[in-house]
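Q: DUF4893 domain-containing protein, please. Structure only.
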Amino acid sequence: MMIARPGSILALSLILAGCMMATPQPLPAPPAPVAEPPSKAERWLTVATAPDTDRLRRLPFAWTDGLRDARVRYASAVREEGDLLRPDAALARPAPTPGSYNCRLVRLGSTDRRSPAFVQFKPFFCYVEVEDDLLTVVKQTGSERPAGRLWDDDVATRLVFLGTVALGNEARPKPYGADQTRDMAGFMERIGPMRWRLVLPNPRSGAKLEVFELTPVADQPKR
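A: Structure for DUF4893 domain-containing protein:
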């Protein structure tokens, strides 16, 4: 019987170890892709018309131009409005509570020289209600009665308003997008305790900015 020499055993061990080391190992599975949450703005962007999307995008310029025009002759009146006309006044939790509101309108700037650059209108009533999963805002009286829905936005301090206006004896406004001469677009923001504003950049009225103030009616109607 042949007895293996220690050197032979060592050489055989090294060969076997080399074979084992050369065996390819399976690659780890690639990490599963992380799905990004859907953008809140995607929903209203599928509804908004191209002209209204452009109006909303140009809001900073509307604020700047409207205030500049108004301050030429109405600087004290602009100051008296306080946070209502301060562009950076928006606070968290912009959604208004459903119910009846005292509303009023302030117009800033003008696209023609005949119209004043600052106009305050008499108060009127408007109503915030829930329709499906969206809030709606409706002006209840007057010859021009805006109405529209409020959509969540990626900017946490605002909601997007897309609406239209009913005229004269019309029972209800046309659907948004049916008549672009009636369409309206803006942002709803909270600017204080129980105080909101609806800002419409470059509206069809000829102003450079329209700002609606909303404060709840003291005696809310019973539901």
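A: Brief note, in case it's useful. The radius of gyration is 31 Å.
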